[in-house]
Every structure is written in C-alpha cells, then in structure tokens.
Amino acid sequence: MKEECYPVLRQEEKPVMIQNRAGDMEYLTFPLLEDISCIRHLFTTRLGGISKGMYASMNLSFTRGDEKEAVMENFRRVGRVLQVLPQAFVCSDQTHTTNIRVVSKEDMGKGLVRERDYSDVDGLITKEKGIVLSTFYADCVPLYFVDPVREVIGLSHSGWKGTVGKIGQKTVQRMQEEFGSKPEELLCAIGPSICKDCYEVSEDVALQMESCFLGKKEILEQILFFKGNGKYQLDLWKANRFILEEAGVKREHIQITDICTCHNPDYLFSHRASMGKRGNLGAFIMLRQV
Fold this sequence. Notes:
24% helix, alpha+beta, seven-stranded mixed beta sheet, 16 strands, globular
C-alpha cells in the first residue's frame, strides 16, 4: 500500500507530528520515534474507516454502540499499515488505573480476536517482537515508550487520574524492573489529547494534582491555572512531561504533540467536544519482527 507523509499543524523545520496517508486512512506519527528502526508506531485519526454516524469513520471501540464488523474492519486497516494480522494486537482494559501489564506472545489477539483474561490495565510493556500494544483515547493522553538499546516498548493511557497516579513514571519503573531499561536511554512521546485551553477541571481535581507535585510550586505554576469560581485549566501535556523527567527520562528525549483532540473534533474523537457521542482513537506500537 502506497503511503504519503507530510508535516501537520506547525510548519517547523522538525514538525512535532507527521500526517501519513495509506489509501483512505490518515494517521499520525512522531518524528522522534520514526527514526528508530526496530519499531513501528502510529496514532489514528477519524479518517479512513467504515464506521457511520457519530462513529465516523475510524472508530476503534467495541463498547460504544458501533457495529462490531465495522470496528473489526477498522482494526484490519490499522493492521495493514503496521503489516500485521488482527491476532497481533493486544488491547488494554482501561479504567483509569496505573496498572501495567507485561505482554507476551500468549496475550496476542486479546481484546480483539480473543477474550481478555485481565482487567483494569492502562499500561502495556513488552520485549517480544510482532506484538502490537494497543490503547485507546478520546481526550486522555497517550504515552509512548521506547528503549532502543534493549528493544523494549511501552504504551500507557494517562487521563487526569493516571497523571495524578504518575502512570508515566510507573511505566518507566516497570520497564527497568522487568527488562533492565535505563530511563536516560528511553525515548518517549506524549500524543494527541486535550490541551490546557480546553481542559477545565474542578477544584477537587486541582487539589489532587497539587498533591502529585507536592512542594513543587514551579511545576504547578506551569500546569495549573486558576480561572475563578472553583475552576482551573490543567495542562496534561506538561504534567506528563514533568513526570517522565522525574522518572529520569531526558527532556530532549521527550516529544510532545501540539494537536488537541477537543480543538479538532472533525479530525480526532473528543469526549468533551462531542459530549460523549463519539468513538475511540487508537495508539499502537510494536517491535518489528525483521
């Protein structure tokens, strides 16, 4: 399948993300991760699937009311880009936890062509080739992890609860414990999600975020902005970057999107913009088999 790619949004010498097209399907990749020969990765947009109505068209959720066969065909299209069959995918079971699952070949197909025998999993890591780690989004933050030295990958879902729980840090630590990864050697990406201008939160969320960065006023001043009437704007992108840096990842090894799901509801699914009437986007990463 012929693919095209070109910079998205900011016209910089090194664009933050790249738009790619394979047939009708349009998807996003990070330049930082595209330079790593041992992996394939992507983040889907709404474009290029067969789902209809509020799910149009690249919906990757089986649980929001869409037709099962439409979702399966959408997965098959993602698989063709990644050059894998559906049984290569391993899907999370996201419930806003900080639980990380070590994925093996025994898990292949779970959540797509096989039943999952696990629950409450918001992060996935593996060292095995040919497995597509798969997590899902409609405003929350996708976090990509690559250890290019030991060839280890991870993918985690970080909403505000996952951010407060520092799932990014916990993913790094789990990669260290299981595979000997060194934080300073990791490359990480923070994917398309809701931006601070669109993300208004209540005081109770703000207080939990303050507890996450207790005593770190200089960080809180950059991620939390008081609006009045008990409301705040929260920058999940920077919050997750600081968490990764605290875990030992170098700042120059972290790439952050500039694409907001809520600002672009015709291009990306957004729970807030659609008031819950939407499908799911997907984040995918795998170690190449050859």
